[in-house]
Write a structure and sequence with these properties.
Layout: E1 16-17, H1 18-23, H2 28-31, E2 43-44, H3 52-60, E3 68-69, H4 71-78, E4 92-97, E5 108-113, E6 120-122, E7 125-127, H5 130-136, H6 143-153, H7 163-172, H8 179-186, H9 196-207, E8 214-215, E9 219-220, E10 226-228, E11 232-234, E12 239-243, H10 246-250, H11 252-267, E13 271-275, H12 285-299
Parallel strand pairs: 4-5, 12-13
Antiparallel strand pairs: 1-2, 3-4, 6-7, 8-11, 9-10, 11-12
């Protein structure tokens, strides 16, 4: 029997269920042609999914109403700043609440929760809310990694939840694996941060035994004009700590504005310590020594 070259629309544009394909007139020969991949039982795609979002979109074709994405899968859908080694996992995490039973099968990690949440939708995908997803990561992430993610959730721009919602989620997740680590991390979270790197920098400073710097402190000139808000600041000593990502070097306008901004800080009596990605690696002792020296000298 002759195998058609193309699948009928819209099956040629997105993952589809086998039952839908049969109803659309796809022949058994097309299923056996080798042109279709089967990432999950009952689901076919023209191209095997390569990303977490693509895997979720494929699984969603067969996802019943009581199921939703959870754990690392939900975290990736929300854009949590996870360690690289945990990103783009080959299996999707799917949860249900009692009395339903979790899914099984190739490419799926099933979970059964004690209570039914109110899932969010990320695009067309149904997932556990961000605060509850964060609580599920306690058995996977370290305390400081949880803090970085928590800062991201309550960040200054487009936060995904509030501190009250995080606290409520921790209380509700009393029997979740790793909840002790989650509770410890909750106290270290600071709202209104601007980037995960800023959070990592703050934790490096604090873990080294230095006083915790302030977040979102506004610096003004002697005339009372607003100059800027450094990433981290020691207000009494007038020491500003600025993390500079790659775009600070490669973007000409950003680079020029950084120079002007730093000059304005210095004119107002502030010392600016610039930090790059290399300072956040295992060899950050020089950064700590520099901050210690600055605080000691400025305190005089």
């Amino acid at each position: 029997m002759r195998i058609p070259k193309k699948l009928p629309s819209p099956l040629s544009e997105a993952p589809f269920g086998v039952a839908d394909a049969n109803a659309a007139g796809v022949s058994p020969g097309q299923f056996r042609s080798g042109r279709l991949a089967a990432p999950y039982r009952g689901v076919r795609v023209l191209k095997r999914p390569q990303t977490t979002e693509e895997r979720c979109s494929a699984y969603a074709v067969k996802m019943p109403p009581e199921q939703f994405f959870s754990h690392l899968t939900a975290a990736e859908l929300y854009g949590f700043p996870l360690p690289y080694k945990l990103c783009n996992q080959p299996r999707v995490h799917v949860a249900v609440a009692r009395p339903h039973y979790p899914p099984k099968g190739r490419g799926v990690v099933g979970h059964r929760l004690s209570r039914a949440p109110s899932p969010w939708t990320k695009g067309k995908l149904r997932a556990l809310p961000p605060a509850e997803t964060w609580c599920q990561l306690g058995s996977t992430l370290t305390r400081d990694e949880l803090v970085v993610v928590g800062d991201y959730l309550v960040r200054r721009k487009r936060p995904l939840c509030t501190m009250d919602e995080l606290s409520a989620a921790v209380i509700a997740a009393a029997h979740t694996p790793g909840i002790e680590t989650v509770r410890a991390a909750l106290g270290d979270i600071r709202p209104f941060t601007d980037s995960p790197r800023e959070s990592e920098l703050r934790l490096i400073i604090v873990r080294a035994g230095l006083p915790e710097p302030a977040i979102r402190h506004s610096v003004t000139s002697a005339e009372g004009m607003f100059i800027g808000t450094p990433d981290l600041a020691y207000v009494d000593e007038m020491v500003a700590i600025e993390y500079e990502g790659e775009h600070h070097r490669t973007d000409a306008l950003t680079y020029e504005n950084d120079i002007i901004r730093r000059e304005q800080f210095e004119d107002a009596g502030w010392l600016v310590i610039r930090v790059t990605k290399s300072h956040l690696g295992g060899q950050h002792h020089r950064l700590i020594q520099r901050i210690e020296r600055a605080l000691r000298e400025r305190a005089r």
